[in-house]
Amino acid sequence: MAELRRRSMRSGDEAAEPKALFGFGRSAFKKESTSVAARAVTGKSPENGQQKGQLAMNNVEPGNGNNIAAQTFTFRDLAAATKNFRSEFLLGEGGFGRVYKGFLEKSNQFVAVKQLDRNGLQGNKEFLVEVLMLSLLHHPNLVNLIGYCADGDQRLLVYEYMTLGSLEDHLLNISPDRQPLSWYTRMKIAFGAAKGLEYLHEKANPPVIYRDLKSSNILLDQDFNPKLSDFGLAKLGPIGDKIHVSSRVMGTYGYCAPEYARTGQLTLKSDVYSFGVVLLEMISGRRVIDTTKPINEQNLIAWAQPMFKDQKRFRELVDPRLHQNFPQKALNQAVAVAAMCLQEEATVRPLIADVVMALSFLSTEPVGSPAPPAVVVMDESRRSHCSRSPSHSSDDASDIHHNSSSSRSSNASYQEESD
Ligand SMILES: Nc1ncnc2c1ncn2[C@@H]1O[C@H](COP(=O)(O)OP(=O)(O)OP(=O)(O)O)[C@@H](O)[C@H]1O
Ligand SMILES: [Mg+2]
């Protein structure tokens, strides 16, 4: 029977997935990927004599040829960076483990350290996929993997620190006294997230199906530039004439495309559906699944369907916290894009490139319009970490604690696991 879970589902029996990835590594990136994988699994250095602590890999973009280095860290390095994983430095907790804010003395930078739950091989698979994917894929709208640690049975990932946390924190976890995101900030985030997805779908070769697009996986830098995170569930897309890959249903309940949830057939259009869900969350300020609402409003997509059919009702979809502060024409277009992405029939959903094109017009604020709202108190304090002296002060601690509690108490989406 399907089991409902908070947060992303772990993989259970997708034994083929790492194999497919290694194949991917061999075809597109030659030997380096397999040596990353080997080291990530065993915690040992690769045999090809690469310098310890550095992995050189080719960028996925054809013809780019950049060498990308993902560092390896010891558990000790990361314990030092997070002051022994102090609870004050906890940024949040997801389906795969906890995320802490850390500071790397050597490179003088703040980082986010994700410590995967140590429950055997399952987490290892996501760890491998994440290291491989993020080592090979590079785009301004994808989170940057600084390195990883595979020390004994410890598995940790080290990412660039995203000052403003997740879109979920700003859109869905906000208390009434905090400033909501402005319309244009929402459209800018939607545009950036769509560009990240476009890179995965149309620039990566073979294409990558992200599979876990949701508001908690869209992270924001100090200027609200979005980056997609969490590639542990990503999957290589179909090659040649095939239009889908088969897989066990994974992802987060509510964000999963209906045909994928039903059949396990995964296409690029499954990601387009999830994008539509996030876009509708941004327009409405509502969670895709919210059990605190009246029955007929608990599922955002079902609630929105009748309004999609009648342009005069589009206003009813809008987040009341925007206080009517949005351009009507842009609203009509944004709702139309969301509705197209959310179509039941996968083949008639748009390509993500079309979505990028549409959003590029909606995310440009007209000259002379009022500035977006000031960054809220929590964000200001997060922002100040970047410029302050690089120590874990008590201010840092309270800021992080505030954020983590909001993240953990959130009525997060649920995951459905089916065999
Ligand atoms: N690189 C980062 N910089 C800043 N904060 C981060 C970073 N990565 C994660 N976080 C914070 O940690 C929280 C937990 O992240 P995590 O990815 O573990 O869980 P999730 O996205 O909430 O759920 P899931 O496990 O389903 O992806 C995020 O919501 C975000 O607030
Ligand atoms: Mg996440």
General description of the model:
The protein is an alpha+beta fold. The protein folds into 2 domains: 3-163, Phosphorylase Kinase, domain 1 (2-Layer Sandwich); 167-360, Transferase(Phosphotransferase), domain 1, CATH 1.10.510. It is 37% helix and 16% strand. It has a 7-stranded mixed β-sheet, sandwiched between helices. A hairpin with an 8-residue loop joins strand 2 and strand 3 (67-72). It binds adenosine-5'-triphosphate (ATP) and magnesium ion. The site of magnesium ion has 5 residues, from loops.
Outline of the structure:
With about 425 residues, the chain is an alpha+beta fold. The chain has helices at about 15-30, 30-40, 75-80, 120-135, 165-170, 185-205, 260-265, 270-285, 300-310, 330-340, 350-360, 375-385, 395-410; strands spanning about 5, 55-60, 65-70, 90-95, 95-105, 110-115, 145-150, 155-160, 210, 220, 225-230, 235, 245, 265, 415. Adenosine-5'-triphosphate binds near residues 99, 169, 230 and 407.
